[in-house]
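SAMPLE LOG
Freezer: B-3
Tube label: C17
Construct: single chain, 404 aa
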Amino acid sequence: MAGYVPLDRAPFRPSPTSNLSSPTLSLPLKPSLLSIPSPKIPFQNPKTLTFVFAPAPRFLRHRSRALESDSPYPTDQGLEKPTSVKSFEEWDSLTAKFAGAANLPFLLLQLPQIILNARNLLAGNNSALFAVPWLGMLTGLLGNISLLSYFAKKRETEAIIVQTLGVLSNYAVIVQLAMAQAMPLPQFIVTSVIVACGLILNFLNYFNFLHSGIWQFWEDFITIGGLSALPQVMWSTFVPYIPNSILPGVIAFSVALVAVVMARTGQLPEKGVKFVVSTSGWTATLLFMWMPVSQMWTSFLNPENIKGLSPFSMVLAVMGNGLMIPRALFIRDLMWFTGSTWASILYGWGNLICMYCFNSISREFFFAATLGLFTWIGMTLWRDTKVYGYSSPLRSLKELVFGA
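STRUCTURE (predicted):
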């Protein structure tokens, strides 16, 4: 048994006359203790105290593995309503299915670009692929690999599949860019090695076939790589309004390297080590969160480019990220919830606002997408509040941010 629920927090409390299927432990009591019986513990007879160890529901056993989450799930917190156990388990299963269903919109989101690139390659129109920035694709690929490692460590199977699909689809586009010579060959070779190592190591770690030292080295690698890439990408977004420079990346690389070395050599306090360990997942999330900012900045500078955006691609982005919001909220994963909500609202819906303002989409299309998104978010908050037995969704959000 991976965990247990304390008796005063148990989701259900059987009566003394019920048939108990859970393991029991009977202890003799001293006569002096019989005058102070606890109403929270069922008695079988006046001289024997029976402790009933209720097996933890699947969601609690699952959460016991996520020890390094930025917002730990309140495993010591029970349900306020005993009748909520069944609905809790059902919502656990349903949110996992929602996260798995996100594979479909994410697959459709990248597939048109892959098909278009293939047609241009077959037609000998290699120059058309230069319109796809390889650096942007590489940034997304690094983000996918980092999040894949994050979710593999937490054993979130559905999210692992989503991130693996992201790695493969982004790498497929990078292969096409390399074939068209739109991406330098040395960078492509290094990227291919990183992708191969990332997929193999995450697969072995998920099935517990990998030595902990090797996995720790891989975590350090993606931490340093992500922290180096993030400020460089943010800086490059505003070129030529600011000087073109690699200084932000170099500084971030130096700081990340020193932090990782200090963490591994025991020169940081426990909180500092936990912070360094959690940065790889947050860095990947921030890379994804910066992509819509870059897109909206480009649209602001060149409004005519908005016509080149596909409204259906934006809707697919809203759907794919929106389907993962319930799971992220349910398991109290602040990083996952922040990234998914940001991408749904700012990237998908935010770009739809820009397209609507510049008359690229109809009013009916925009309002239908808006109604669907915020109805989904409202339903998520309402259902999470209900299965926990809370009176307000603000309590769920409070636990998400600050913990139980």
